[in-house]
Write a structure and sequence with these properties.
Blueprint: E1 13-17, E2 24-28, E3 40-49, H1 53-60, E4 69-74, E5 85-94, E6 97-108, H2 112-131, H3 134-137
Antiparallel strand pairs: 1-2, 3-6, 4-5, 5-6
Pfam families: AHSA1
Domain Activator of Hsp90 ATPase homologue 1/2-like C-terminal: 66-131
Protein name: Activator of Hsp90 ATPase homologue 1/2-like C-terminal domain-containing protein
Length: 138
């Protein structure tokens, strides 16, 4: 198995700024492929929680609730170095509950079931247990 490699420290970057724009264009002087492509899949999971969107959102982050969505890079320890999946958590209000929709892109094919198990057991079930505590729901 070939694992991803880091960029060469001798690689030069060229930065161009057009006077009429506020955007930067960054180009490598010699294109170097970082890492290797591995086969990946996308996952979709949903879970219902007996709580409000605000309270469930607050378990994941201390940031202000703006659009009922959190997007983050995610990596399991046993994945190839520098390989990350993109996880999107959507918080959907339902009658007296919140549906959490998890969409994950870039999960290595051989790690799909492990990823589902991890989210179900180590996250969803743990959060449900946390929500049963009287200080959170009372």
């Amino acid at each position: 198995m070939i694992l991803p490699t880091k960029a060469s420290s001798t690689q030069e970057l060229t930065v161009k700024r057009k006077p009429s724009e506020n955007t930067l264009q960054v180009q490598a002087s010699s294109p170097v492929a970082l890492g290797v492509r591995i086969p990946t899949v996308a996952l979709h999971m949903t879970e219902l929680f007996d709580t409000t969107v605000e309270q469930l959102y607050g378990i994941f982050t201390v940031k202000e609730l703006k659009n009922r969505k959190i997007v983050m890079k995610w990596r399991c320890r046993n994945w190839p170095e520098e390989h990350y999946a993109t996880v999107a958590l959507n918080f959907v209000p339902t009658l007296g509950q919140t549906e959490l929709q998890l969409d994950c892109k870039g999960v290595p094919v051989c790690k799909e079931e492990n990823m589902k198990f991890c989210w179900q057991k180590q996250h969803f079930e743990e959060i449900k247990g946390l929500l049963q505590l009287p200080t959170l729901n009372g």
